[in-house]
Structure of RNA polymerase RpoE-like sigma-24 subunit:
Amino acid sequence: MKPTLCERELRSLMEVYHRPLLAYATRITGDGWLAEDLVQEALTRLWQRPEVVSNRARITPWLFTVVRNLLIDRARARARRPHEVFDVCDNVQQDHADETLMSMTVTAMLDGLTPQHREVLEHVYLRDSTLRQAARELNIPEGTAKSRLRNALRLLRDDVRDPLAA
């Protein structure tokens, strides 16, 4: 197990770096909630990398670079995802019955997936994790997570194209 920073050291670093990192992240994202997420992730990564703390001069540029890279990774992940069908139909009014039917249909389609496919799909799309994060949380190789996600999307797409085949 890798050594990590003690709670006191981490608290001290958070007091010093949280506010400037949050200001920077808010300025580049324009979104306070997203900025807070990026800062927390950056500080978590600092906590996991005590060798960075050993060189005090490297901490500030390292943290700001991590925040910037996290934002870039998030933008790339969103760009790689296919556009949702409902994005095209924003101006169409749906009543409660449509929402219920859609929910039942999606639930049935997800139930048709294997648990392994569904897990990866939930991590990436519902929990907004990157593939790397999903793989880490599921304790599987990143390539396996990528394959499972691709296969799950293919199965769902096939289900949408031919709902009677299932």
